[in-house]
Write a structure and sequence with these properties.
flat; about 0% strand; 7 helices
C-alpha cells in the first residue's frame, strides 16, 4: 500500500461514524504523518496544509500526554511551510508553540530542555522578542535537572543505608 492509498483509507475512516474517540485520534495522527510524507515526496502544499490542520485539531484533544509530541510535529510542519512561504504568521505560531512545549509539564524534563534550547537558538537567530524568555526557560529546566539528580542521589543513599541495617 502506497502513501496515497493509506491517506484514502484514513480519510474513509474519518468520514464514517467513529466508534472510538481514541481510535479517531490515532487515525488523525497517522493521517497527519502520511500527509507530511506525501508533501515531502510531491512538494504539494495542500498536503502540508491538511497535515497542519489535523495537528492543530489534535492539540485540542483531551489526551494531555500526547500534546508534546503533537506540538513537536506541528512545529516541524510549520517550519516547512515557513521555509517555503516566509510568512510571519508561521514564525509567530512556531515561537508560540515552542513556548507552550517548553512549559508542558506532561513532557519529560530533558525533552522540554531540548525544545527550550531550540527556542532560544531560533529566537536569537531571528531576533525574536521571546529570546530572553527562551533562555530563562532553558536555565530553569537545568535547575530542574539538578533537583531531579539530587533526589535520585538521596534515594540511592537511603537504599545503601537501609541495606547496611537489614
Amino acid at each position: 500500500m502506497g502513501i496515497e492509498e493509506a491517506i484514502e483509507c484514513c480519510q474513509r475512516y474519518l468520514e464514517s461514524p467513529q466508534p472510538s474517540d481514541f481510535l479517531t485520534l490515532m487515525i488523525k495522527s497517522c493521517l497527519a504523518d502520511l500527509l507530511i510524507k506525501a508533501f515531502q515526496c510531491t512538494d504539494d502544499m495542500a498536503d502540508l496544509n491538511r497535515s497542519i490542520t489535523l495537528l492543530c485539531d489534535l492539540i485540542r484533544s483531551p489526551i494531555t500526554s500526547a500534546q508534546f509530541p503533537i506540538i513537536q510535529r506541528l512545529i516541524l510542519a510549520l517550519s516547512s511551510q515557513f521555509l517555503r512561504l516566509h510568512r510571519t504568521i508561521d514564525s509567530e505560531e512556531i515561537f508560540q508553540l515552542l513556548s507552550i512545549a517548553a512549559a508542558n509539564t506532561h513532557a519529560k524534563i530533558p525533552n522540554r530542555f531540548h525544545i527550550s534550547c531550540q527556542w532560544a537558538k531560533l529566537a536569537r537567530l531571528y531576533k525574536h522578542p521571546s529570546t530572553s524568555t527562551a533562555y530563562e526557560s532553558a536555565i530553569s529546566l537545568i535547575g530542574s535537572f539538578k533537583h531531579a539528580i539530587n533526589h535520585i542521589i538521596i534515594c540511592l543513599i537511603n537504599l545503601i543505608i537501609k541495606s547496611f541495617f537489614t
